[in-house]
């Protein structure tokens, strides 16, 4: 977790995504009750929230009930959002950490498009090819895809014991992250070199139509799984309204089906450049857990 924090902070220097959602440890240790209450009074108002209703109900009655429950809540004077776009990265950044434990780790983060960017859907299919289909919110997880390119290159080869990838759908450009747990006897540099060979391959050689078809099916299946319950559908409608609009959720499958081989190679060449990434190595020094 330390390595993930350090890599994200190094990759995002200007945008507020640089900071953890709940702040740094020093913030938690020094914030006062008055400051917490001021934050609540400022931001937690009905005019800064989205109400989502999903399920079997009568719409008119549901709207009446929402009005009954929330209609008397006062609006807040919400300050305007501070817009600090992350500037383009102009060279690879590296983070090296040493600490306790017996396991080394590799973390690589590429700058990735925002949810509303036309590149996001082709990038989602590309991440399925490289690390497997995963959910697209910050809380999603799924088992590793043993057919993905990087799993075969890193785990099946014996260089790493586990691999995962993530690219959450966010309002502003965020990160595509690849994490690997290094097998004992190897080091992060060896894993990084093997990963780079696979990344170079997808940059230089178009994927096959068969691989694209498989990736699209896997992406659609993961999306269907993550939105099969009424609760998850409600979550996705609200989440989509935050990061793009509700149509983003409703048109997701259609847009995934429209991705082409050329789209995948285009976004790979645009976003998976070495100059667009931050690489982190965690070197264990023994003597306990991380």
What does this structure look like?
By secondary structure, this protein is α+β, with helices and mostly antiparallel strands. The chain is built from 12 helices and 5 strands. It has helices spanning 2-11, 25-30, 33-43, 59-70, 120-131, 149-155, 188-204, 209-226, 230-243, 246-250, 252-257, 261-271; strands spanning 93-99, 105-112, 160-166, 174-182, 277-284. A hairpin with a 7-residue loop joins strand 3 and strand 4 (174-182). The longest helix has 18 residues, at 209-226. The relative contact order is 0.19.
How is the topology of this model organized?
Elements: H1 2-11, H2 25-30, H3 33-43, H4 59-70, E1 93-99, E2 105-112, H5 120-131, H6 149-155, E3 160-166, E4 174-182, H7 188-204, H8 209-226, H9 230-243, H10 246-250, H11 252-257, H12 261-271, E5 277-284
Parallel strand pairs: 1-5
Antiparallel strand pairs: 2-4, 2-5, 3-4
Helix pairs in contact: 5-8, 5-12, 6-7, 7-12
Strand order of the largest sheet: 1-5-2-4-3
From N to C, what is the helix and strand string?
HHHHEEHHEEHHHHHHE
Describe the global form: globular
The major β-sheet equals:
5 strands, mixed
What's the total number of strands? 5
Q: What is the CATH superfamily of the domain at 89-284?
A: Metalloenzyme, LuxS/M16 peptidase-like
What value does the average pLDDT take? 93
Class of the domain at 89-284 in CATH? Alpha Beta
Stated plainly, the CATH topology of the domain at 89-284 is called Cytochrome Bc1 Complex, Chain A, domain 1
Q: How does the helix and strand content classify structurally?
A: alpha+beta
Note poorly predicted spans. Answer: none
Quickly count the helices.
12
Helical content stands at 40-55%
